[in-house]
Give the backbone structure.
Amino acid sequence: MSLYPVIQAYKTELFPVSSVHSLSISQFGNANGKPVLFVHGGPGGGADDKDARRFDPAVYRIVLFDQRGSGKSTPASSLVDNTTQHLIEDIEKIRKHLQVEGKWDVFGGSWGSTLAIAYAQAHPTRVKSLTLRGIFTLRKCELDFFYQGPGTSFLFPEFWEDYLKPIPVEERGDLVKAYYKRLTGDDEQARAEAGQAWSRWEMATSRLHVDPEYIARADEPGFADAFARIESHYFVNGGFIPDGELLKQENVDKIRHIPTVIVQGRYDCVCPATTAWELHKAFPEAEFIMIPDAGHSAIESGTQAALIRATDAFGKVA
């Protein structure tokens, strides 16, 4: 199943959410359609116009936004007042600003699934449906599997060696902390080197088949800096939420009335399937789809098809 055809935003704007941050918002599709919010990954990844193509433009009023410090939002790469709680409330500010009354559909993958779940748990009466992919809940065990090892390091050893290179052996006991030190330090060369190495690690491991063109995205200085800085900022702080908070049964219970589809790549090495499985067990009402031949990326064919089927189905719900 293919993405919907290329479309242009019918409105773009820079929306101030605080005295520091202004968020880039783009709207696509049917201005009078069902409102749906696309929540991008990272944190720090930014949204792309092609993300709007996962939704039927005749049915949906498609809202894309760049989170604090990400994409076209300003100031770029800023860590000031940049926490999960700030982002949750930013989503509510956007909903009110766009005059979305009642509920809207919410779509998020990877870190986008984290923020979508956190937003839904904080504002359960505002979410009409959840389409979630590559579930990530910021637990230490999830972060360690990918960023500290052993875990993904056993499957991508050549790329793991590149990830280790910027960090001296004596600092490798806490790699996220070591990267954060460089990404927030005054040494511009060390910051650039760290940003590129951090980003290449995630780009290299995100797909079932390593994609050199995707890895090359880490060579884009602006992207790599925001992506790595903001991710390490969140991860060194445990996402600014208690460990395991999003999967606690009392918190999952807050959203079990929301129609939800969970799509997970069997061989996802960035956000391993165990987290999606645990969410599924706590949330049996949600439709759980394990894609047998996919990694982490949303554009792998089985994952892409499942996501579009989900948004098409929710698009038919009154």
